[in-house]
Fold this sequence. Notes:
The chain has 163 residues and is mainly β. It has helices at residues 2-12, 16-19, 158-162; strands at residues 34-35, 42-44, 54-69, 75-89, 95-99, 102-108, 114-125, 132-142, 147-157. The chain has one domain (2-162). It contains 3 helices and 9 strands. Strands 1, 2, 3, 4, 5, 6, 7, 8 and 9 form a 9-stranded antiparallel beta sheet that branches. β3 (54-69) and β4 form a beta hairpin. The protein is globular and about 55 Å long. Mean pLDDT is 81; it is low at 1-29.
Amino acid sequence: MLGWRRPLIVLAASSIFLWLGATPVLGAGNPDRQPAGTPPDVVAPLCGAALGDVLAHISINRQFQKTYVSADGTVRLTFQGYVEGVFTAVATGKSVTVNGSGPATLVFFPNGDSLFVLEGHTLVLNPPDQGIFLYTGLVHYDLATGTVSSFTGNRTDICALLR
């Protein structure tokens, strides 16, 4: 199940979580602009059995990340730029294209806690059968549970648009 859930969490946060794999060595402590990696496509029943498999694809990725390391060991990653996602219902071929650009900030504290705050446009893919949502506004994402813990702004149901 972990192999299945990981790509969903990645795309759920505008593809930011997988970009951590492209994070440069953190020891330098100086911010440096690095291109954020593009996660792999996901094909899964993201919108439930009635709609069937949905292909989630990042069609444009012009996002960059900066890494900051503070003296106490706190690591802060910031993400900015443009990313576009395309969601296609495999059975019908119907597609929806959305801007999922963020920006976002991901913080890892020395005690093991983390904070993931997203602003602007945020794509969230939930575990199987629980939907795809586009949030516009401020989003707090819980990395431990892989869910949105709170948001202000609007939420659009992408699955409803694919039906």
